[in-house]
Amino acid sequence: MKSFTYERAKTPAQAAAAVAKQQGAKFLAGGTNLLDLMKLEIETPTHLVDVQDLKLDRIERTDEGGLRIGALVTNTALAADATVRRDYGVLTRAIVAGASGQLRNKATTAGNLLQRTRCPYFYDTNQPCNKRKPGTGCAAIGGFSRQLAVIGSSDHCIATYPSDMAVAMRLLDATVETVKADGKTRSIAMADFHRLPGDTPERDNELERGELITAVTLPRPIGGTHLYHKVRDRASYAFALVSVAAVIQKDGSGRAAFGGVAARPWRVEAAEAAMTQGARAVASGVFAGAKPTEENQFKILLAERTLASVMAQAKG
Amino acid sequence: MSAPSHSSLDISRRAVMVSGAATAAMSALPADVQAAPAPSKPATMPVSFKVNGKDVSLTLDTRTTLLDSLREHLKLTGTKKGCDHGQCGACTVIVNGERINSCLSLAVQHQGDEVTTIEGLGTPDDLHPMQAAFVTYDGYQCGYCTPGQICSAVSVLKEIEAGIPSHVQEDITAAPAFTNMEMRERMSGNICRCGAYSNIAEAMAAVAGAKA
Ligand SMILES: Cc1cc2nc3c(=O)[nH]c(=O)nc-3n(C[C@H](O)[C@H](O)[C@H](O)COP(=O)(O)OP(=O)(O)OC[C@H]3O[C@@H](n4cnc5c(N)ncnc54)[C@H](O)[C@@H]3O)c2cc1C
Ligand code: SF4
Ligand code: FES
Ligand code: FES
User: Fold this and answer.
1) Does B209 lie in the same domain as B130?
2) CB contact under 8 A, B38 and A50
3) Cβ(A42) to ligand 2 under 6 A?
4) B132 in the same domain as B114
5) Per-residue pLDDT averaged across A243-270, rounded?
6) Distance in Å, CA B116 to ligand 4 centroid
7) pLDDT tens track, chain B, 212 positions
8) Are A102 and B189 an interchain contact pair (Cβ–Cβ within 8 Å)?
9) For chain B, what is the domain count?
10) Do B189 and B172 share a domain, yes or no?
11) What is residue B175's three-state secondary structure?
12) CB–CB contact B35 A46 (8 Å)
């Protein structure tokens, strides 16, 4: 691990300014992703600004009847929150399907959103990787791609985005709240927050340098049955091959978002009109234009079948 | 998980790394990185926290994980290093009442915290009920994963009691129960190469039953 200096910020604006003013500075929340990557020298910050004292660890009602989740609320606390369990159950289900009890105790809402890909070549510093080292190429294209993206990828990167929590947040139309070094705040819809790779796969999301996430807000609850099915190589403590987050109403209408298939949670609102016609009708819309590799084309059928099982469970 | 590392090797490797880090940090920095002025010496910082009820103060290289501070600096070698990447659970300790992976946490993040390690749960003469149950039910073979398993197991029973939901609950608005399925799911962050899993679950069930 490269050497770095460390400080603890006291206010969100101070934290943002501290990272903005120093090239090579990064925020540190739980550390469960950043430290892992620093040990491998995939991330090499020269300065860490620890955000744990920013008091962004509350879950509050918004004036609009939704929920405001502080950036530092842990994954355990968010999953266990009584309101989340009752009104946004898909979020609890997605979180507890990810990582382990120990990791969820330390992982934060913002850190989880910003976790980086698990592409094996991104992790192997001996391999070319445009996301890790722009312009070096992509070892995954033509390599082992079973875990990687089937849609939204480019000739520069076919990585998937690994968060379970974010798939549920995308489904729930969440918004990411931020503050910049100059004190300006902005709101970014989850739908626009994570970027597709294009020719700049090194940029995972829309945040600018020194821009701090302060909260994630959810709109009013939408009722319905909340489900999250995650298909993986073992029953627990593994990343998704494919996951489906869904909220399904009594009449069979509803929403569905998919994890493990693209560089962002994958949801196609237009395809949801077909929810009452069954999984195939929805999946053909959601995966229109997919470009899987030979090794991962199974994911498209798997996603459809996972959605079918979610729909069957919602019917009861 | 990777094979448990030999701690003697670890120590010598780390000693070499620490003494050689100043030069290594300079020479390994590629020319095209316009990083902030790289510190000429690895940065160090003071940190104090409580370990097993005792106040400790250390001055550490900022890179030191909580795990290495416990093992190498405080000589509390009960906590083990398996993978050093959050994948095996051997390093599980309890911080401010919650279990975490001490390998994925910097020591300096824990200023003012209360840390409990396996040494703080019980002693050979006065075992914690979970330690005693692991002995009774043969919850280990080689014992390498055991300190992490026990810290996790103690926390898991508390988490179920506190109503923290899990992946195997059908109704996530309901209170979870002390079932075998729940124990297995909640312990999935602790890997055991010897495969003592079913005995660990039995030890946990015995402790949970004795409480109920
Ligand atoms: C073995 C293992 C298995 C896992 N399995 C899963 C899984 O199945 N599903 C899943 O979803 N996840 C999984 N994870 C990932 C885990 O969820 C993340 O590591 C965790 O959520 C990161 O949160 P953190 O607070 O520790 O982030 P950190 O590591 O502290 O930070 C991550 C990134 O976010 C930035 N950051 C943090 N806070 C802010 C902020 N407020 N504003 C701006 N930037 C910020 C940091 O600079 C850093 O770049 C797994 C991790 C491990 C180690
Ligand atoms: S898929 Fe993306 S992350 Fe993986 S090797 Fe290619 S460029 Fe890197
Ligand atoms: S040493 Fe394996 S999880 Fe920490
Ligand atoms: S690894 Fe040997 S007892 Fe678990």
Assistant:
1) yes
2) no
3) no
4) no
5) 98
6) 21
7) 344 444 433 434 433 333 333 333 334 444 443 455 555 789 999 999 999 999 999 999 999 999 999 999 999 999 999 999 999 999 999 999 999 999 999 999 999 999 999 999 999 999 999 999 999 999 999 999 999 999 999 999 999 999 999 999 999 999 999 999 999 999 999 999 999 999 999 999 999 997 65
8) yes
9) 2
10) yes
11) coil
12) yes
B107: domain CATH number?
3.10.20.30
- CATH code of the domain in which B185 resides: 1.10.150.120
Contact A241/A299 with Cβ under 8 angstroms? Answer: yes
Burial degree of B5 (CB within 10 A; 0-12, 13-18, 19+): middle
Q: Which domain holds residue B184?
A: 122-212
Pocket test for ligand 3, best of B7, B68, B71, B84 (most atoms within 8 A of CB): B84
Kindly state whether residues B126 and B212 are assigned to the same domain: yes
Q: Report the candidate in B68, B64, B34, B16 with the shortest Cα–Cα distance to residue A3.
A: B64
Q: Which segment of A218-222, A299-303, B5-9, B83-87 scores lowest on mean pLDDT? A: B5-9
Q: In the listed set B121, B146, B178, which residue is the last one of a domain according to the structure?
A: B121
Helix residue ranges, H only, chain B: 7-27, 66-68, 118-121, 129-136, 146-161, 180-186, 197-211
Tell me the shortest Cα–Cα distance from A44 to chain B, in angstroms.
Answer: 9
pLDDT band at A296 (very low <50, low <70, confident <90, very high): very high
Q: What percent of chain A has pLDDT over 70?
A: 100
Residues of A within an 8 Å Cβ radius of B: 1-6, 8, 22-25, 28, 30-32, 35-36, 39, 44, 46-48, 50, 52, 76, 79-80, 85-86, 89, 92-93, 96-97, 99-103, 105-106, 235-237
The reply to whether B113 falls in a domain is: yes
Handedness of CA B179, B184, B186, B190 (dihedral sign): positive
Residue B141 lies in a domain: yes
Atom of ligand 2 nearest to the CA of A139: 5
Output the six-digit token pair for A173.
């139309």
Q: Decide if B103 is inside a domain.
A: yes
Record: contact A96-B98, CB cut-off 8 A: no
| A241 CA from centroid of ligand 4 (Å) | 29
- CB contacts of B61 in chain A (<8 Å) are 3
> Per residue in A83-134, pLDDT tens?
999 999 999 999 999 999 999 999 999 999 999 999 999 999 999 999 999 9
Q: By the 8 A CB rule, do A60 and A19 touch?
A: no
Report residue A2: phi and psi, to 5°: -75, 150
Average pLDDT score over residue span A161-175:
98
Work out the average pLDDT over A156-161. Answer: 98
- Does residue B91 sit within a domain? yes
In angstroms, how far apart are the furthest CA atoms of chain B?
63
The residues with which B118 forms a beta bridge, in sequence order, are: none
